[in-house]
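Lay summary. Proteins are chains of building blocks that fold into shapes, and those shapes determine what they do. In this project we predict the shape from the chain. Here is one chain we studied, written as its sequence of building blocks.
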Amino acid sequence: MKFRINQIIDHVKSHSSDPKLVASSISIGLFFGILLPMGTQSLVVVPIALYLRVNVYIAMSATLITNPLTVAPLYYVSILIGKYITSFNFNREEIQGIINSPNYENLLSLGREILISLVLGNLCIAILISITSYFLIPKILSKLKRKRSD
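And here is the predicted shape, written in a compact code that computers can read:
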């Protein structure tokens, strides 16, 4: 796993990578990595990355933002954001199943209001993180390239 992460970082930092292309690739991966449930992301990211002519490898790597360690906290925060936006009224016990075991069965068993809150919260987080990363990545890459040349 560590070797694979180092490969991704080296690829992103390489001199031949255009910072805007890398930023676009990462942003697309982060957006769909947060918005879509794990396991469905590649079905959407690969065709979109190919269509937009961004780096598929980097976009797919960025979808790893959601993984077994991050999905429960992400879903919890997303549900709270969605609940705030929609003013739906449900309690912590109703969402405990998806937080304790974030799988498709528990996801599909959520009530309509909680599911809407989850999707809306995921959308808000995905937009915020993907736009922020699009503007930050080129700055970070240019600093890394300056450090490398010094």
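What the prediction tells us: The two ends are 30 Å apart (CA to CA).
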